[in-house]
Amino acid sequence: MNKKQKKLLVRIIIAAVLFVPLYLISEGIIALPVPKWGVFAFFLVPYLLVGYDILRKAALGIVRGKMFDENFLMTVATVGAIALGEYGEGVAVMLLYQVGELFQSYAVGRSRRNITELMDIRPDYANIERDGELVRVEPDEVEPGSVIVVQPGEKIPIDGVVTEGTSSLNTAALTGESLPRDVEPESRVLSGSINLTGVLKIRTTAEFDESTASKILDLVENAASRKSKSENFISKFARYYTPIVCAAALALAVLPPVFCLVTGLGMAAYPSALALWGDWVLRACTFLVISCPCAVVISIPLSFFAGLGGASNQGVLIKGSNYLETLSAVRTVVFDKTGTITKGNFAVETVHRSPVEPEKLLEYAAHVECHSSHPIAKSIQEAYGGEIDLSRVTDIEEISGHGVVARVDGMKIALGNDKLMDRLGVAHEECFHVGTMLHAAIDGVYSGHIVIADELKENSRRAMAELRRAGVAKTVMLTGDAESVAKKVAEDLGISDYRAELLPADKVNIVEELIGESKKGAKLAFVGDGINDAPVLGRADIGIAMGALGSDAAIEAADVVLMDDDPLKIAKAIKISRKCLRIVRENIGFALGVKLLCLLLAALGLANMWIAIIADVGVMILAVLNAIRCLFVKKL
Ligand code: ADP
Ligand code: MG
Questions:
Q1: Which of 53, 124, 279, 336 is catalytic?
Q2: What's the helix, strand, coil split of the chain in %, to 5?
Q3: Residue 440: in which H helix or E strand, if any?
Q4: Statement to judge: residues 464 and 511 lie in one domain
Q5: Which of 15, 380, 606, 614 has its CA 20 to 30 A from that of 210?
Q6: Mean pLDDT of the residues in the chain
Q7: Number of C-beta neighbours around residue 114 at 10 A
């Protein structure tokens, strides 16, 4: 509890202690002969003590012309009650309203803190070695390429590569993965992970601001500002709702008594015209208390906020509550293959029909690929294993969805798929292997092919099953790879549809087609690894990027980022969003239902202010507790 909340709590307690005996006296339960003005004066003390800030805010609101808010409703209602001699009720309403406010600010503060604690990845300092001593510096003073030292128990402040030492890292805050990750020299490490066992020396590869931890924090902090439709609806709703309620209350205070006075109907029940007015004004005040929209107004943003927090705790970063809403309506999921469903670590299986030695071909291939960030390029370089001499390579041209052409040792070497060979007019040979073919041409002459194979991710099959269980009717795989490979993967995993041999632009067209075909309100998600998928990620109703840790393009283009590459998280993200929206709907329905019922009772004169305020605070507390459930996500 913070200072402000503590102060409010103290005010509430003192006011309650004063209030209870006063109430008993005024109701005649404790017989003490106190004159009416005395009771009034005594009641004023707890009233002002507990409510002065509300009264002040209401007054300020009136002065600033923004009068129709909860403070105004409460002020009018309680002042009205007191003016009518219902001191006890007036004070009780203010008191309970403040109890509700306190609870709400406590709950909101708690869940916010919870989320930032979960996301506790902000590094505070970096250690640099200077003249044999460790010096603590601000992480943003560290230049890329410097060597930092991270002791066991410390957070890694900046992304980099290990140069010395072995250790295991806790990456849970980044990926939701609870198993520690072992690192050794040459391993890439991400800021925000916690070093568990050994001292590490790390050569930084980025500035602090460009490091993973900073980027994720930016994302999370900005997420709250991208409002969902329901949240926007609520702020609009509140703008019109309160004035309407006030008008209705005014009508309730004026019209029925005027009607009675004019027609003479029902007058018999009242000793005087004044008593008649008093009764209806009190009903109008009760009406105002009931219609205070606090529960709805507070619980909706809180639900979304908790949903975003719960998701990021699982390694699913959602960039705004609007995306939670879209996710919950996803009925079609479209996948990229390489790096999304498969690991993207191609192993070289064989080299066929090469006039040069296989090792030589691999060497050329590794040099041709020296600047590509495609998973194929990385795998070829790994298979080659040797040093790459960049000075041997010139004129590199990467043709997206085709392959790469470059000059190595002065020879023009092309490396890529059938399409690349067709494009260059090189006759190429089919292979009996099922696998991804990399054909090579040296100076326009066909020079064999490298057969590479990729592995499925462990969770891909389960991911498809979970998606089906989460109500996703259609899964489609789009790939630039060969038909035979695509078919095998799709059949293995039970993906409902696949298209192969696509260029990145074709993927955009197909996604547009699929969006056109889908039913109204049903949304389409595209899941990609971010390398050459950025246009599709942008075009889909919702773009989900895999393995985005480190890939900038994906973090920017995607709406949802799966931190640990795990396709199972797609279903999880959808489930989280559904739960969150269900809770939002429950809260709206429940709050409005109770309010309507109370309004009806009040209009009929059956509910007094006690019932009204207890219903209001009660609904709010239940709605807030319900909203907080969004934070807790079941493990799949
Ligand atoms: P996916 O849709 O599976 O992610 P891409 O669109 O990235 O595939 O690439 C499609 C195909 O284009 C690859 O299967 C490969 O045959 C060829 N290709 C793309 N980039 C390269 C590269 N750097 N080197 C060799 N071949 C490549
Ligand atoms: Mg790809």
A1: 336
A2: 55, 15, 30
A3: strand 436-442
A4: yes
A5: 380
A6: 87
A7: 16
- The predicted-structure confidence for 567-576, as pLDDT tens digits, reads as follows 999 999 999 9
Q: Decide: 473 and 462 in contact? Cβ < 8 Å.
A: no
- Whether 336 is catalytic is yes
- Output DSSP code: residue 253: H
Q: What one-character DSSP code corresponds to residue 139?
A: G
Ligand nearest the Cα of residue 477 is 1
pLDDT of residue 117: 63
Ligand 1 atom 13, closest CA: 481
- Ligand closest in space to the Cα of 533: 2
pLDDT of residue 636: 55
DSSP assignment letter at 630: G
pTM of the model: 0.81
Residues 383 and 421 in one domain: yes
Give one DSSP letter per residue of 71-121, joined into a string.
HHHHHHHHHHHHHTT-HHHHHHHHHHHHHHHHHHHHHHHHHHHHHHHHT--
Flag whether 523 is in a domain. Answer: yes
Count the alpha carbons within 13 Å of 593 in the hemisphere toward its beta carbon: 8
393-399, strands of its sheet edge to edge = 347-352, 445-453, 436-442, 411-416, 403-408, 393-399
C-alpha dist (Å) from residue 179 to 169, 189, 480 = 9, 15, 34
SS3 state at 545: strand
The bridge status of strand 403-408 relative to strand 411-416 is antiparallel
Structure tokens that stand for 372 in this block: 């590509």
Q: Is 404 close to ligand 1, i.e. is its CB under 6 Å away?
A: yes
**Which residues constitute the domain of residue 198?**
143-206
Do 363 and 236 reside in the same domain of the chain? no
Instruction: Count the domains in the chain.
Output: 4
Buried/exposed 585-618: b ≥16 CB within 10 Å, e otherwise: ebbbebbeebbeebbebbbeeebbbebbbebbbe
Q: What is the dihedral of CA 410, 380, 565, 475, to 10 degrees?
A: 90
Yes or no: say if 423 and 526 are a contact pair by the CB < 8 Å rule. Answer: no
Q: How far is the CA of 402 from the centre of ligand 1 (A)?
A: 6
pLDDT at 119: 62
Structure confidence by residue, pLDDT tens digits, 427-475: 988 888 888 899 999 999 999 999 999 889 999 999 999 999 999 999 9
**Do residues 370 and 444 share a domain?**
yes
Residues 331 and 476 in one domain: yes
The stretches in the chain having pLDDT less than 70 are 112-120, 220-221, 224-225, 530-531, 547-552, 554, 634-636
Q: How far is it, in rounded angstroms, from Cα 447 to Cα 416?
A: 12
Quick check: is 252 in a domain? yes
Per-residue pLDDT, 604: 80
Choose one of 369, 398, 402 to mutate for the ligand 1 pocket test, by most ligand atoms within 8 angstroms of C-beta.
402
CATH number, domain with residue 181: 2.70.150.10
> Are 265 and 291 found together in one domain?
yes
